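General statements about sequence and structure are easier to judge against a single worked case. Part of our work consisted of pairing the sequence of a single chain with a tokenised description of its backbone. The amino acid sequence and the backbone structure tokens for this protein are reproduced below.

***
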Amino acid sequence: MLKLHHIFRNIAQKGKVSVLLFHECDKDVFRKSVIYFKKYYNIISLKDYLENNNLINNHQKPFLILTFDDGCASNYHLLETVKKYKIPVTIFLIYNYINSESPFWWNLNGPTSTQVEDMKTISNNKRLSVINVNLDNKFNTNTRDSLNIKEIKEMIPFFDFQSHTLSHPILTNCTKKTIEDEIISSKKLLESLLDKKVSHFAYPNGNYNSNIIDQLKKTDYESAVTVNHGFNDIKPKSKYEIKRIIVGPGTDYLVTITNASGVYASLKRYLGL
């Protein structure tokens, strides 16, 4: 598998931009992975990629962008490594969970994992009714899931914070009004909190369509990242459909760096798994 990983990095990723999608990553695994990434990749920011800063003339190593969705509380522990190695990392925040003691809705103890997947297919109003029932019955993790304002303020000089909506609904199941509110309000509120422009967006659960892309453009977002697997061209075909490679939580160092090459996901797709 490691040999395949090197082949992917040297051939499939050559002249491409790979965007990794994390949610959480163990502190030590992240540190070791960053050391590896700095050796074998050009780690660039999302902004540099979209502005194409010096990418065309620098093809010696494949390009890598590190992104984290949701703004999990554990992301705070990445700060030490990010500061030490001076690497760009983008975190997509869910605004309504910042400073909240409520768990992310998919982490409620009420629904099973199967029910959570089912909740992603129903209308947003029905999903909210299920969440409210679980909250009323006090099904919770008793653990803060999201970064809080104090942590975010400390991290601002070292991380690029961007939008992942207000409440992480499945946007394709939402009304036009809800879509507008989730996209517009999250941008405005985050800009006020961060005192900077918010230009990039991550689709909750990766669900999107042309209407959602149109709303992002109207709201002055410059790009959006998906969960569509693959490598990106140096000049993206669509700035609102940037592909990413998922690195699952709880993975060890070897699995993380192998995942980064895209070999695992590519083999699974090839085998139809």
The first strand starts at residue 16 and ends at 22. The mean pLDDT is 85. The beta strands are 16-22, 42-43, 63-70, 89-93, 160-163, 200-202, 223-225, 232-233, 245-246. The longest helix spans residues 176-194.
